[in-house]
Specification:
12-stranded mixed sheet, TIM Barrel, alpha/beta, 33% helix
């Protein structure tokens, strides 16, 4: 899956069926209804939407299917859904509910064959592997894979894991830095760059965008194929249109 333009992807983090936003995955604030806000983002020019049930894995449950069923029909762009996906039947149910792709994280670390089997059954373009990272200078890349909403360290090197899931058939990688998520201080550029240069599949920068300059940096300096954005859009700091016009003016190909 390759694109001639760089994508702007609003992220809908949900908890108990509501859209929330926090810092480092905690101190969550209610932002609204995901279906309603997702539809508004489509009208505003989003290239795709990502919806993550951020507490499903920690709470040991499946994704809230009702949220997906309510949201997907209102969107005019592809929807990727993640959170609580533990087996192929979960992927199948979400794709049937209207998701264009599914994002797996903790379950893939636990059983990497899930990526392979999902890619074989549904196609690589429908399998996104989310990689949550934390800095760890003891590892070759300096970045460690963490799971369960960033709560549990795995000892896995993030770059090595990215290469493995690419080999197993993942269509895209969605790395989020636990060190920068929700801080609005900018993406973790060294981590994003390390993964983007290690694989050939698209990498979606995530975690920490606070200004339009941050989006530019993730694409230009870190080699991201797309940027996931939450706080900047949720709190009205900038519109998707403003983001695209800014990037276009700075020579980044976008879909206007």
């Amino acid at each position: 899956m390759f694109f001639s333009y760089r994508r702007i992807i609003p992220c809908l983090d949900t908890k108990d069926g509501r859209l929330v936003k926090g810092v480092n995955f905690v101190n969550l604030r209610d932002v609204g209804d995901p279906a309603e806000i997702g539809e508004a983002y489509c009208r505003a020019g989003a290239d795709e939407i990502v919806l993550l049930d951020i507490t499903a894995t920690v709470e040991g449950r499946k994704t809230f299917m009702g949220v997906v069923q309510r949201t997907a029909p209102r969107l005019t762009v592809p929807l990727t859904v993640g959170g609580g996906i533990a087996e192929l039947s979960d992927m199948e149910a979400l794709l049937a509910a209207g998701a264009a792709a599914v994002s797996v994280n903790t379950a893939a670390v636990k059983d990497p064959s899930l990526v392979e089997e999902g890619a074989k059954r549904f196609g690589s373009d429908r399998i996104v592997v989310a990689i949550d990272t934390a800095r760890n200078p003891a590892l070759p890349s300096g970045f460690e894979v963490v799971v369960k909403g960033g709560r549990v360290r795995t000892g896995k090197d993030a770059v090595a894991w990215a290469k493995e899931v690419e080999a197993r058939g993942a269509g895209q990688i969605l790395p989020t830095s636990m060190d920068t998520d929700g801080t609005q201080t900018g993406y973790d550029l060294p981590m994003t760059r390390a993964l983007a240069t290690a694989v050939k599949i698209p990498v979606i920068a995530s975690g920490g965008a606070g200004t339009l300059e941050h989006l530019f940096q993730a694409i230009k300096e870190a080699g991201a194929d797309a940027v996931l954005v939450a706080s900047v859009f949720h709190f009205g700091k900038h519109t998707i249109r403003e983001a695209k016009e800014y990037l276009c003016q700075r020579g980044i190909p976008v879909k206007l």
